[in-house]
Amino acid sequence: MKKYFPFFGNYVVQQILKRRILPRTLQMPITGFCNSRCVTCNIWKPIYPRVHMEATLLKEALRDPFFAKVENVGLNGGEPSLYPEIEKLLDALFVLPHLQSIYIISNGMCAEPLKKMIYIIKEKCSQRKIKVHLSLSIDAVGKTHDQIRGVSTAFEKTMATLKELNANPQLYCDELTVGCTLSRENIARVVEVECLMEKLNIPSYCHLAVPNRRLYNFDSSDFSILNDRRSLLMAAAYFFGRFKYEKSLRKRIIAFCTYYYLRQNGHDRIAGCNYLRSDVTITERMELYLCATASECIGNLREHTASELIASEKLKAVERNTKRYCDTCTHYVSFPTFRGLLFFIVEKLKSAVWVSYKIRAEFMQCFK
Ligand code: SF4
Description:
Blueprint: H1 4-16, E1 25-29, H2 55-62, E2 72-76, H3 86-93, E3 101-106, H4 111-127, E4 131-137, H5 143-149, H6 154-167, H7 169-172, E5 175-182, H8 190-200, E6 204-208, H9 229-245, H10 249-263, E7 280-282, E8 287-289, E9 299-300, H11 306-310, H12 313-326, H13 338-366
Parallel strand pairs: 1-2, 1-7, 2-3, 3-4, 4-5, 5-6
Antiparallel strand pairs: 7-8, 8-9
Helix pairs in contact: 2-3, 9-10
């Protein structure tokens, strides 16, 4: 319970007092290069600029006291295994005095570069007691995954990588999971991924594909479940099932938050989000954003320190504009708001209310 006190404190400061606190989590797309052609993302399209993050610039930027409380870093892309200077990047991250975990998301299509990269990360992080979490993206079984990823052999390659990693997971990470991004293309087949991962004994997690400024699809989200009534109903049924039958309470609450959001046709978020007034994103171009979803760029860390950017007038405008999207956003669903928790409890009690009516009805029947 003690470990949750800072969490509740930070929640109250951000969500109730509406005050900004230093970030605990840093999201970093470290490269714009990608070997996938996903229907849920446009980053791979040649019309968009592609660069790798410059590790030396990052190191300089992270020395700013604004990052002094960062505990978790997410590395993604593009495809992070295409990043060429991982050792320098780790050097930069180790400037963070309270770093506790690194979370990497990969499509797993290039086994050798990924294994090499993750092996280095694990080795260096173990020396500093930093946990490494690796998540491979699998959106469906077989051809559906290939179609979503736009690569004819994607499923075969990712599964081969997953099996190799899973044969000796402790060499590469502290936790290996599979992430499934739900869109109109795969919602009907989501359970197949779960069954396959259960067989391999690998935890899998599902989240909705969302329009995302950083992935250049913020204004064109045909893939979204919200744009198709049938998909929306299937997704709502799926998350309701998770809410009812997940073993862990935390997972049940998270599933309920997404179920409720879908039931409201994507117009009422009851999950908290720390990206509005705390956590931040640094892109491969060294641009500082709040979230990667709806936030506009606050400024570039090549030109200003993060402390300068956060104190600027631009931050206020970005925060105001981002907030307009929060209610319709379902990204980063990892804990409920107080209101969400209350709705969860009420929904849980519904069956108890029904049972009490049933007992009363039977009772009254007996004395009729
Ligand atoms: S738009 Fe979404 S991800 Fe961004 S701050 Fe709001 S809730 Fe969080």
